[in-house]
Amino acid sequence: MPHGKTYWHVTFHPYRRAPALWDGVEGFFYELVDGVAKRLGFTVLKVVAMPDHVHLLLDLPPGLDLIEVIRQVKGYTARRILQRLPELRGDMRSPGLWASGYHYVRHTEASLPTVLRYVESQKVRGGLE
After folding, report:
1. Which residues contact 18 (CB under 8 A, 6 or more apart)?
2. Coil/strand/helix, residue 94
3. Which fold has domain 6-125?
4. pTM above 0.85?
């Protein structure tokens, strides 16, 4: 019996929750996530980078493993951001960008509008807009 589409709300944060995702890093992060999505063949419905964490709302095709997608996104974005801005390593007192781990929640078409509004409201909720 078909179950309908599944969407994933993924969050993760920089090491020590350091506020590393300021303006210049934020835009670059968005570009990098889009590149990973194109390479792996998934859709980013929404991405919001807060200074100390990120939200991704993803639509993965059948057969694409969520954990592998998260691993690829975190690995690629960390490498590229730290290549461009190596001083972040010192600022964060860490050799890497992202803390280990992540959080994800499965959503259906029924809950998609609610989670989309939630992700889109992050800047306002965080006092950044």
Report:
1. 52, 91, 92, 94
2. coil
3. Alpha-Beta Plaits (3.30.70)
4. yes
